[in-house]
Amino acid sequence: MMQNDNIQSLSLFELNQLIKEKLADAFPLPVWVRAEISEFRENANGHCYLELIDKENHNDRIAAKMKAMIWSSTYKLLRAYFEATTGEAMRAGIKILAACNIEFHELYGISLIIQDIDPIFTLGEMATRRLELLKQLEAEGMLNMNKQLSFPFLPQRIAVISSQTAAGYGDFVDQLHQNRFGYMFYTHLFPAVMQGDLTEQSVITALDAIFDHVQHFDVVVILRGGGAVADLSSFDRYLLAAHCAQFPIPVLTGIGHFRDDTLIDHVAFASLKTPTAVAEFLIDKFQYAHDLLLQDIDILKGKVAILYQGQVEQLQRITRSLPSLLMGRTTSQKEDLIRKLSVLHRISTQQISVCQQNVTRLNNLLRSDMKQKITDHHHALGLLENKLKYVNPVAILEKGYCLASVAGKRVVSKSSVQEGDIMKVGFFDGVITTKVTER
Predict the structure, then answer these.
(1) Edge-to-edge strands, sheet with 422-427
(2) Residues 223, 97 share a domain
(3) Considering the domain boundaries, does residue 155 fall inside one?
(4) Which domain holds residue 410?
(5) CA dihedral (92, 95, 97, 100) positive or negative
(6) Are residues 97 and 185 located together in one domain of the fold?
(7) pTM across the whole model
(8) For the segment 399-439, what is each residue's pLDDT rounded down to a tens digit?
(9) Which of 58, 218, 327, 333 could form a disulfide bond with 155, CB atoms 3.0-4.6 angstroms apart?
């Protein structure tokens, strides 16, 4: 083991100074560095602090990482130029090509001081990323899903996704409801954040709310106007594009830009650039329907005129032929009536003859039946007369029987008579009165 007195050493500060000198000698000029921004923040002084990373090609594992910063004076210029060129805000998640000075601080270590950023590189990266997402949507069958829907003949009930305070929303509503034709539209606003990091989730939430009442709407319009061009990146997200593509009714976009299309513009039923263009699109649909209706009315008028003329001509032909038709009709009816009268006379004569025969037959039957019934009743009366003779009290008394009564009551037994009773005894030829002296 070596003795400490013989070892040549540097203090940590001296080592860092040496590294600083070597780096300054090795990189005297700015170096163009490709990297992805993983962290991004601005402080109160206007300086911008970043963390840059580089990922491995075959996966998302971080291969390198370094701190970077942009001084406020440089940042103001770079940000304005970057956003104007790319239409994208400088933020975490995007790739940049930056000219950097490599600095090493004895206390804080190595860092990059960004002097310039090439926005064209970022545009290429953004286009590549958008193309990848479009291919993914196409592979999943969603790219043209909304475009393949049938567009309503009269898109009158409109669900609007926008910020209530957005100038574009106000322009859309004014142009739609104050259209020169007087067409009636129904609009319902589903408020959403249309700028910043919350835009994607906010618009998705609004789409979900519309979906819950989708039967009450014909189309969805997504409007944005008056905001920063840099905030368009929120509309380049896969999740939002997937929601728009799979929505069950047509989606129209008017998010206020002319140069580039966002991802949702590609999947929407129609991209109309601005809110007022969306309003004109809907009004044109009504105008088209109106024109078709007018055409149908003209066609109908023509057909009615032809039909009317045909009916008039037919009526005229009938009028001219009416006398001969009536004469023929009268003759035919007269002949038919004569035939019917002849048939009626023949049938009536036959019916009368049949009825007379039936009356004669019934009369004979009635006479025969009456004679038989008189004979039967006469015989029955004879029998009753004989019975009455046998039960006649006078006939019974003539045979030697008598009737006895006391005080008006008939005597039928010895026990009902007392000594001294005055009894009347009736015979067939008279009545005698006697007194009972002995029982």
Answers:
(1) 409-411, 403-406, 422-427, 430-435
(2) no
(3) yes
(4) 396-435
(5) positive
(6) no
(7) 0.55
(8) 777 888 888 888 888 877 888 888 888 887 888 888 888 77
(9) 218
